[in-house]
Amino acid sequence: MGMTTQTMLTRDLVLVGGGHAHALMLRMWGMNPVHGVQVTLINPGPTAPYSGMLPGHIAGHYARDDLEIDLVKLARFSGARVIFGAADGIDADRRVIHVPGRGEIAYDVASLDVGLHARAAHIPGFSDFGIGAKPLDAYADRWDAFLEHVKTGRKAGKVAVIGGGVAGCELALAMAHRLQGLGKAHCVTLIEANTKLASGTPGADRLLREEMLRLGVTVVSAVEVEAVTAEAVKLRRYSDVASEFTVGTAGGFAHSWLATSDLPKDTQGFIHVDDQLLVSGRKDLFAVGDCAALLASPRPKAGVFAVRAAPVLHHNISAALTGGAMQPFRPQADYLKLMSLGSRSAMAAKWGWCLATPKAQLWRWKDHIDQSFMRNFSEFPEMKGTAPVGPVALGVQSDQMLCGGCGAKVAPGRLNAALAEMPAVTRADVLQGAGDDAAVLEMGGQKQVLSVDHLRGFVADHGLMARIAAVHALGDVWAMGAKPQSALLSVTLPRMTPELQARAMREILTDVGEIVRGAGAEIVGGHSTMGAELTIGLTVTGLLDGTPITLAGAKAGDVLILTRPIGSGTVLAAEMQGKAKGRDVAALYEVLAQPQGDAAEILRGAHAMTDVTGFGLAGHLMAMCHASEVAAEICLEDVPTYAGAEALAEAGHRSTIFEENKLSAPVFGPESAKAALLHDPQTSGGFLAAVAAGEAAGLVGELLGAGHRAAIIGRVTEGALSITLT
Predict the structure, then answer these.
(1) Which of helix, strand or coil describes residue 369?
(2) % of the chain surpassing 70 pLDDT
(3) Active-site hit among 403, 406, 625, 635
(4) Is there a catalytic annotation at residue 635?
(5) Residue 55 has pLDDT above 90, yes or no
(6) Other C-beta atoms lying within 10 Å of the C-beta of residue 364
(7) Strand, helix or coil for residue 187
(8) Residue ranges of the chain assigned to CATH 3.90.650.10
(9) Which residues are registered as beta bridge partners of 265?
(10) What topology is assigned to 11-116+254-324 in CATH?
């Protein structure tokens, strides 16, 4: 996600939504970018579903991963940053997008591709008991949960689909096929207000009704929905339709934040755009996909038009950023509809004709088209590397990028050797210097802890990086049992214009301030500069009421508690190479940005404690054992790991200081991918605490109740300095 740059950044391009047009446009941008542009993608989550394969997933033919575009990998390839959040406002005059929890994201040029939704709020009870087919991911999640209820007997499998258009027919057939596989026949009812199914597709009604009959789908047409309840869909002048899972596909609705915005729009709330995909009257704002209404060439809401718009969007956005000439978008008058029929079969429609034979071959044709589209986002072309040109000195290595989180640490062996040469502390008010998590000072009878930490930007979202850096730095204060007091902030920004500097600093200060003030401290100053890459650091102080919790208090018989999973260094290293799954990366970021002051408070009675960071779990445990003159045992199967970390370690992914960490803290026991994670450098890692055996279970219960993935991972033993796997 493009953290390091030598070209000055002069423009902010913000893409709102990960729809098909934006996804394809980002792929094109990765191959042909406009230099000097900072690209930001705002999306609620790390993936975007491909609508063409949704019926196949609902029917059970595709796994969830098969139809999801990994926006994190795409952003890494295209050099974009991702902000996870659902936009809920736009001020086009001030050129800002509002994202809950993140505030305003400024732009010079922006594009909207947020789709629509099928949440029929006008139907009484639908908002409480129904689910719209769009957004697709929300519907797929609810469907998976419903199937689990059916499998366990908690639900009978009764389903109703409101809307008999192409989407409604496809989903009704898909759900019926899936339920038949669970032994639930004749459970799906399709409700349509018109007399014909897929009324905009001549010839489709008869063929679709034949397929409905084959799969046991009951069709109720020419009726009006009156209300939706938890057990039924109530129809006007018709019997109620029993339903435990009601899906709405009838029409599409604009997102409220766009429908109520000051942007020009039609009566349904969809944004007016001209033939250059520009929002009417704007030269810096585009809109594509289902959220847009094409004034020059009105078309139905269909993903094919968003796909065809992507090359024009890429060209015109580039032109808007460089002052070039734009191109018109001329969508085709009609398009081929390949409709899934529940099983691995399909029908085709175009130009007023409809074909349903041979159904299996039509399915293979559709599957080929869909799989080809998805390969755009799983198979990226190799881009030119940054290997040095000309003679190279002995020892130069350029085969692995320096990791962000782990790159904030010098390897432990070399660091300890350098620290050993420092002169002894002579000031009486310095009670403890280098060697523990933080220094301990005394002033007027008050003990104060002092520490500094900084991180290279491993995620290009300034606000998220700021939150993680703040939690990471405060970890040293919390680990000593102190209350955070103050913070000095140090920021290095990539080369950018003064306006972009101001935008970046607003994001950083907002998010750092939220974490620091939330911990009870204040930002009291700092320093900023520009350099080759984003770096954020904090010098933090904390106040101690009693004696600090140090590395030196662990006792034989103590139990070891870890408050967070391990494996962040491996996930981050793999993400930099475009190998980690976006869902795993997003889940990791969410944990890394979570403050840990409450966890430290729960562990205030620990005999010894440290935060697990750059030297890895084994390295920090070894430091505790050395200071306490004890040994330790770890039960590897009890050590929690981040999603995806073990598989990535099995595939050979390692952070850049892994080998140094392993040499500095050897662990006796069988080698495995999970054992390798013991040496994985952590960013914003959890606390490792040695506590009395009788208190451990209760403390872990409190930690779990507070939302931390805590676990008992081993025990402290007598003997020579060592760590052993049990």
Answers:
(1) helix
(2) 93
(3) 406
(4) no
(5) yes
(6) 14
(7) coil
(8) 550-726
(9) 271
(10) FAD/NAD(P)-binding domain (3.50.50)
